[in-house]
Structure formats: structure tokens, C-alpha cells
Amino acid sequence: MMLYPNSPEAALKFLNFVNASPTPFHAVDNASLRLEKAGFLKLHEKDDWEKDIQPGGKYFFTRNQAALVAFTIPAKWKQGAGLSIVATHVDSPNLKVRPISKRTDSGYLQIGVETYGGGIWHSWLDRDLSLAGRVVIREQGGRFKSKLVKIDRPLLRIPTLAIHLDRDVNNSFQFNQETEFVPILGLLENQLNARKADDDDNKDRSGKVDPPQKASSIQANHHSELLSLLASELSIAAEEIHDFELSLYDTQPATLGGINNEFIFSPRMDNLVSSFCAVEAIAETASAQIFPTLEGNVNCIALFNHEEIGSVSTSGAESSLIPSLLNRLSPTPATLAQSISRSFLISADMGHAVHPNYKSKHEDNHKPKMNGGIVIKTNAKQRYASDAITTFIVKQLVERKGGRVQEFEVRNDMPCGSTVGPMLSKIGLRTVDVGNPMLSMHSIRETAGSHDVQNAIDLFSSFFEGFAELDKGLTVD
How many Å is the Cα radius of gyration of the chain? Predict the structure, then answer.
């Protein structure tokens, strides 16, 4: 990219990944493509794949299009070996289209949405928004399929109120997320192929009630213009759309910025940065000359969904994804216990860089800086799962690649966030929480360091290459 001379290659690759991944479904799909390119074979959970895996093999599987687990088998692998896991999440705060989204008001077509996660919602105002997600369609022959869709143009907007109508807006700005946070899609008078309708019911002008729709039909739940647009994107008829999960996203692409391109300005960096780095690290390690010589643990990445709302789902970190993999690779009680004891998990989630305008929000001695190296997160209340042993291991792995580490611990007078780390540590896995420092977490546009992308890839690669040897030299119990 000529726009970014002398910029970190890993950061440029991340821009492509995040711009192509407006939803968890797209992130998982793009991760899958990267892994297949690196020679990974896709498995299906419903199949009896245990008998087919081979030493030296590279595999991955997905669940519900929204979570992904990839792993590589060492040449001398046997049951009871541990897992070396990098765990991330692919969801971010956003607005989701409601099951019945059709709304009109004051001559506007509107789309009903529900907030997801803890977003900085005012940052979504006056942005050029569009839609992406997955759509359940009927194919020729009567079969059904879930297909991804991404509308690549501004489609929606949530306008702010003019200052002339709200003179106190710069002193005390607040808005109701139900009534004052509804995107506009278009003008009612410009509806194509639409009859003039009463906004409040489904009667036509003769007073005749429309016949009830089939239970499987969603045609009456959404504006016909929206369904037609989706159908056009998928090259099908609108009647072939049977359901969908759509999210709003900002159409402004991610970019490098700063006087020396030292920043990334982007949506969804929490936590697509960590997810991208995990995929790159395992793909690069599995393609390297060193791969056939690796011993010890099964290297693994896990990209979970629903972290922003508690991880309790079939594709979240509290699901059976990791326990199932442990059991399928080490199916007896003895080998399973051995595998858990030999395993190690890096919970990778973005962290908080010190803000120059709000320095007091950080503890005096724990102020991570962007491009300053990997952040190790600790919390005495176990909101992060790091301890002295696991942080020691991470520092050794970072040092192995010539990198640096930073420490983060929250102030005593502030609550602490959390990650997938503590909940996965309940399995019995040794766990450490790390991340790249960033500003404006959960805004529609976040800021992170462009050099930190490679820092995370280096840590994960060092983990996959060197953990087994490091663990052999460590005595704890």
C-alpha cells in the first residue's frame, strides 16, 4: 500500500482482515480461509474425526459459523499431551437488527435495532452505517443454507439533533437508547412498489385485513426494500429469504494514522486484533521449517463468540468447545487429567493504554503505552487469571523473541473488567491474561498501535514454538 510507506506489514494485513470482517460470522469465515491456505483441514464436530487425525496434521472446526478452534498435532503426539491455547473472541459491541425491524415515523423508513454489549453508543451517531451478517435462504431443490452478506455502501444513519433544537447538548448530552437511537433507512414516500399504508396496522385502504403469513415467513416483519436489497446481494428472490442475523457496521474502512503511521484507527479492534494475530501465528508456525520438529503440546487457537455479553452460549468460552477438544484428544479419565495438567492458556484480549487527557484513570505505576509491548493483566480478585507462574512464562516467551512487556492492574477505586481467561481457568488450565494496549475501547472507532500487531504475533509464535521446552524446566508442584 503506497499510502503507508515503511509501515508494519502485520498491521497492513490486519487492516484487510478487519475491513472484511464486520461480524463474527465474517471473522470466522476469513480465519477459515487463512487456515485452509496454510494447509489446515476442516473437521466437523458431528463426525468421528478422532480416528483420522495424524501426527503432524493441521486441523480446524467451526461452530455455528461464529466460533473457531484450530490445532496442530506434534509428530510424536500421544494421548495425554496438553494443549497450548491462545483464546480470543470475535464479537464486538454493535447494533443488531430486531426480529421485527419494520418501523416508520414522520415519513421515514426506520430499522428497529437492539444494543449488543457495552458500546460507547454516542460514537454510533452520525456515522455512515450499513448491514452485514448471515441469511437463511432456500436453495434450488428445496434445501436451506446460511449465507454471509455484507452490503458495501452506506445504508443507515442515526442522526443527532441539531444544536438549535438542543442548546444544552454540549453540557449534558444524553439520549434514550430505545426511542432516540433508531436508524433511518430512507423516506416513506420513496418506497418502490409499495402501496400507501397505515403506519399502525396491516389493513389496506379498503379495510380488508391481509391474510396471515406462514410461520416460516418473515416478509411482513421487515421493510420490503430491505428484503429486496438483501435478495439482490445474494442473487435470489426476496421470498427465498427465511431468516437472518444482521448487525450494523461503520462503512469507514480501518486505516493507519499518526504522523509516522504509528496508530491504527479502526472498528472492532477489541478483539479482532488478538484474533487475527492468533490465526497468523498458528498458520505461520504450521508452515515453518521448525514445525515437523515441534514436540510436547498440541498447539491450539480458540476464537469465541459472545464474550461481550458474558460468554454463555454454544459458541462462547463457557461452552463445550475446549472441554470437548480435550476429551476427544484424550478420552480416558487418566489421559484427560494429564492433558489438563500439561496445558497452558493465553487469554488474549485488548487492554487499556494510558490516555493523555485522562491519566488519572490509571494506577500510577501501571500505565501501558501503545507500541510499548505486550500488556500482562493482573487482578487480585481474579477478574484476570494471571499469577506469578503464568506471567513468568509469558515474560520468558516474549524475551525469546526480543520483545518487551508492560504491566496493567486497575486502580483500587475502579471496577475491573474481565476476559475469557478466568472462566476457562476453571477447567484447571494454567492461564495468563495479556493484550495489546488501545484507546477508546468499545467506541465505533478505536485506536491501537500499528507495531503491536507484530508484537502479539511474536508472543503467540514463541508460545507455539517454545512452551514445551520452557515448561520442562519449571517445577511448581
Answer: 24
